[in-house]
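Appendix B. One record, verbatim.
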Amino acid sequence: MKVSECMCKDVCFVKPNCKVYDAARIMCENHIGCIPVCDDNKCVVGILTDRDIVLRSVACNKDSKNTQVSDVMTTNVCTCGCNEDMCDAENTMAREQIRRVPVVDENNKMVGILTMGNLAQNDKKLGQQNVCTTIENICNCQGSVQNCE
């Protein structure tokens, strides 16, 4: 199965100069936990997650209405190709422990996003045990768990 057969094709994105507040509103309105950040050519330059907003904006007391997405986004984003085999994409997600992967075409333009939800929705085609193992590896915590006191 190819990534293009499994991915979500209707994807919102923002530009790096978008304000964090505006990006958060888009995420809220679309019920999504992340949004790709693309340049004028629709090439992925970063990704903004709800976690980025909390840890790099709110927790750092940054003004979300004046802070640009580029100041808090995750860079060095893993992507996968739309013609890539799903097995390879799952391996990338598991190895890098990432829940959402922007999907790009041969020109590196974003054409979709692949999420754990997409894996779950296609578990019969991909193999239920394989999907379960991938999701387990994505979520696996290698370190020790410490409770806050």
